[in-house]
Amino acid sequence: xxxxxxxxxxxxxxxxxxxxxxxxxxxxxxxxxxxxxxxxxxxxxxxxxxxxxxxxxxxxxxxxxxxxxxxxxxxxxxxxxxxxxxxxxxxxxxxxxxxxxxxxxxxxxxxxxxxxxxxxxxxxxxxxxxxxxxxxxxxxxxxxxxxxxxxxxxxxxxxxxxxxxxxxxxxxxxxxxxxxxxxxxxxxxxxxxxxxxxxxxxxxxxxxxxxxxxxxxxxxxxxxxxxxxxxxxxxxxxxxxxxxxxxxxxxxxxxxxxxxxxxxxxxxxxxxxxxxxxxxxxxxxxxx
Length: 288
Ligand code: SAM
What we know:
Layout: H1 9-18, E1 31-32, H2 35-44, E2 52-56, H3 62-69, E3 73-78, H4 84-90, E4 97-101, H5 109-112, E5 118-123, H6 129-138, E6 143-151, H7 152-158, H8 169-177, E7 178-186, E8 191-192, E9 199-206, H9 217-229, H10 235-241, H11 246-256, H12 269-286
Parallel strand pairs: 2-3, 2-5, 3-4, 5-6
Antiparallel strand pairs: 1-8, 6-9, 7-9
Helix pairs in contact: 2-3, 6-8, 9-10, 9-12, 11-12
The structure holds S-adenosylmethionine.
């Protein structure tokens, strides 16, 4: 099926009919039907001959073919077993593609990628975008770059700056682990079936070092989580909800030079790090 252009809506309809498929909304099955978009995503990944690349949710193999055409070493993880015979046909021409049947949230990604550094390139299933991104980042996998299509609203949250209404825990995590860039928007018309929302492609270069010095990452993310769990509360009050005493909060804020009356959404990564590091120092002093 190499000659068949899988980004052509008529071809997609033919494949769907021939294999008796029904697209499952609950699995986020919106297939790309715009050639320029498919090529644009694959190109943004900057793949070279032999680069290991992980695709999450190949669907009927549209983006997979574009990734394979670069000569990269493609591993595509698909949950829906009804798509496996389709992929066998549409990818038959390529000896640089491996399809793995599994749930991306459950599989051992490092093992699947054979413990080598890799790139991620995917049109993500939207119902689990954040858990996928967080798994890729928090597991500290040897990822060089992530290029994903997500809902535009999620892409905006990933790249949001302090002080904007959409800046939140996802923005801090993504910016702590990566340098994200919004690349381009994609209209619902470029999918079959058309989703209800506009999409966007985000590229994230994974950082070798975080942009701020953090003594204890767990504590840093504890502060971030507290700050955004009740957005309408002042930062000082969110720390109270995280279990700190009034005295300790006063001491932390004083040491980090932060006004406790501010809201979490105004705080930079550096300011979260200052508070978390002051908290770590406080604990090391009070522990016997
Ligand atoms: N890559 C194709 C394209 O661009 O046309 C399809 C993308 S579609 C938005 C998302 C794909 O992810 C579907 O094929 C769906 O079956 C698959 N999927 C959904 N949940 C998954 C999971 N937990 N693990 C792996 N794949 C999943």
